[in-house]
Design brief:
The chain is of the alpha/beta class. It is built from 10 helices and 7 strands.
Length: 334
């Protein structure tokens, strides 16, 4: 069994305070992310999609469970694996797809591409592909919220590889010392590119690291969207009440390689099999059916609606114009 089975999960019960509509909204958001990326991947293989791709497949429960608590004015910072965060934060499928196609109707007007999705008006800074690069930016956003006396929260998403960067420790320390409304979300998928986490740190729980900074560190089953949603809810209450940061270590697993040309030959096949049987979308489906909250008809309807929305996004993107040469000089500070 994957290690995530040994940590905090929803436990097969119906957590209090979560409505059927919320469950189905979480399901829909994960399906949107999965279908969006499935479509992107096949278009890339067909040569229709330019650039590169770092897919989020398998980690949908983290983005959906965290971002379900966000207000529009809250801000997130993402990574090179940005699709899931963007869609979960509320960027439209059309604007995300157009950005991947490099079109002017994209969320960054075709200038960001797959690794720099973002829209400040929707509460997402353009993603930063530098490992750990978004952690101090989110901390700075949280400082601004506090100074402006706004009841908003900043969230930084990053991978397990980022917690060995000095900027992680510096940012978490200052976030703790100044009691900033920031949530640090480590998506621990066990690999920094192709390097297993056991080769770069002695501890087994990344969440333990922040105890030295005096803030809570919580390990969560990142394939269980209900567990992520619950843990994130507690962290958001803490942040909005002025009680400072939380680190959420969400243990998860990417279904594909690190990037487009990665065949995953470095991953243990037994490990891979154990994790891939715990698909976050299927886990939520089974839970909702077992508890009588939803049935197959609900899932078929949502899947069909999302499929149509993805087709619309692709059509919109392919029909949108490319930037003009002069656009390279716009939106630039000189």
């Amino acid at each position: 069994m994957p290690e995530a089975d040994k940590i905090y999960t929803a436990g097969g019960t119906i957590p209090g305070g979560i409505s059927p509509d919320t469950y189905l909204a979480l399901y829909r958001k994960m399906v949107e992310i999965r279908q969006f990326e499935d479509t992107v991947y096949f278009m890339f293989l067909e040569g229709r999609m330019p650039g590169t791709v770092h897919l989020y497949q398998g980690q949908e429960a983290v983005a959906a469970g965290i971002c379900a608590h966000l207000q529009k004015e809250d801000m997130i910072c993402s990574t090179h694996r940005a699709d899931g965060h963007a869609i979960a934060k509320g960027l439209s499928l059309r604007s995300c797809m157009a950005e991947l196609f490099g079109r002017t109707t994209g969320c960054c007007r075709g200038k960001g591409g797959a690794m720099h999705l973002g829209d400040i008006s929707a509460g997402m800074l353009p993603a930063i592909a530098i490992v750990g690069g978004g952690i101090p930016i989110a901390t700075g956003c949280a400082l601004a919220f506090k100074q402006q006396k706004r009841n908003n929260v900043a969230v930084s998403f990053f991978g397990d590889g980022a917690v060995n960067e000095g900027v992680f420790h510096e940012s978490v320390n200052i976030g703790a010392v100044w009691n900033l409304p920031v949530i640090y979300v480590c998506e621990n998928n066990l690999y920094g590119a192709s390097t297993h986490i056991t080769k770069v740190m002695k501890i087994t729980d990344i969440a333990e690291r922040v105890k030295s900074y005096g803030i809570p560190g919580i390990s969560v089953d990142g394939n269980d969207v209900i567990a992520v949603y619950q843990a994130a809810g507690d962290a958001f209450v803490r942040a909005r009440n002025g009680n400072g940061p939380t680190l959420l270590e969400c243990r998860t697993y990417r279904r594909g390689g690190h990037s487009r040309g990665d065949s995953n030959m470095y991953r243990d096949k037994q490990e891979e099999k154990a994790w891939l049987t715990r698909d976050p979308i299927i886990l939520l489906q089974n839970f909702l059916k077992e508890k009588g909250i939803a049935a197959d008809d609900n899932f078929v309807r949502i899947d069909g609606e999302v499929k149509q929305a993805i087709k619309d996004a692709v059509s919109f993107a392919e029909q949108s114009p490319f930037p003009e040469p002069d656009d390279a000089l716009r939106d630039v500070w000189t």
